[in-house]
């Protein structure tokens, strides 16, 4: 073991003839925040989905803490998948809340199902996490009574209540107005300050620059460059990184 908390090695995932990710390796240390940036279609979502096995890589290996999986011989067993998922929480662009349950119940239910917590215990924990994301006053509201930003914060609380050691974010602010996106980024900053280990696919260059410890640039299914935010943002080595940053930052 290399001392890292997450170690993805040579992950490859094809969809038909198309290699969405090709020989991608990345390590994440405990408490580290890594942003993955890059153009649309580069494979960023596919990569992060491979980390909690929403997509099963065709080859390579993945270790999260002491849970290790080698790919290439079909779908991993359910206990192995469960083992990896126990460590991870994921937040998507779409919030995927149950519309007919309150915020409190949305956050409590997965804990009752997966961790077998009692209703009282799960609701107490749900309240803690709703408070952490600033939504204690929305605990009894239904998703339709909440703004997009509030719904995303409920989704974050739901993930946190499962006690993950690694939080995966897949463009959590896409599709939200900038000021609402800023609410989400604020919650993520707070998590980073609390030393949560995070892997974040983002188009928010400000977040990548000011909150991450490392930025990885993905183009055509490969990580072409990785380094400190300062290095990547101000002095990128790779011409594809330079082009991408010029396009998004307009410089
Ligand atoms: N389930 C799937 N079936 C077929 N092709 C897929 C699937 N998921 C992703 N792809 C393809 O894999 C490639 C990488 O997609 P992916 O969503 O990972 O890119 P991305 O970098 O996250 O893009 P964006 O920033 O637009 O979300 C794309 O060409 C996409 O069309």
TrEMBL record:
Keyword Acetylation: no
Record carries keyword Cell division: no
InterPro entries: AAA+_ATPase, ABC_ATPase_HisP-typ, ABC_transporter-like_ATP-bd, ABC_transporter-like_CS, MetN_ABC_transporter-like, P-loop_NTPase
Record-annotated ABC transporter domain positions: 6-245
SMART domains per UniProt: AAA (SM00382)
Entry keyword set: ATP-binding, Cell membrane, Membrane, Nucleotide-binding, Transport
Coiled coil: none
Primary subcellular site in the record, as a coarse category: membrane
Subcellular location: Cell membrane
GO MF, one example: ATP binding
Topology within the bilayer: Peripheral membrane protein
PANTHER family according to UniProt: AMINO ACID IMPORT ATP-BINDING PROTEIN, L-CYSTINE IMPORT ATP-BINDING PROTEIN TCYN
Protein name: Amino acid ABC transporter ATP-binding protein
Species assigned in the record: Saxibacter everestensis
